[in-house]
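Note to self: keep these together.
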Amino acid sequence: MVRAGAAEWGGLPQRERLAVLWAQEALPFRLLDQPKFRAVFGPSIPVGFDRRELSTTTEALAGSLREDICKRVKGQVVTLAIDGWTSARAEKNINFVVLHGGYAFFVGTEIVEHQDEPTLTVLFRKHVKLVQDEMGAFIICVVADNATAYQSSLDTLVDGA
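Structure:
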């Protein structure tokens, strides 16, 4: 599993270190294009490392992490946590997180325009299927916001509709 602690930095190639740093600090990819940034940090940036390379490296690391998470939860009982929140751009988001063994594993996020029962039921079903079929985990508990639409959608899923 790719870890971002200081002790693990020594074993990561420089491109992966930069991708982890960008992700952990939520740095904008455009920073790589800034002449002042390049003037200060240029010697530590590999030749040819641009926004496209950063994106490719980040996606590869994310894929590797997803594989590690799937191995960890396969055949295990888990809790699926569902949490709604509003972004700074006023977008309604729903995060899906698997809880297992004292760890929280991000499954996905959805931006939703309408939080009505049919829309939420489809989204919840999609993520339940992902956790059960793709990750191979058994959901024994679902924790969600107290929103009425969430509760109705979860009731619909449990009732098998």
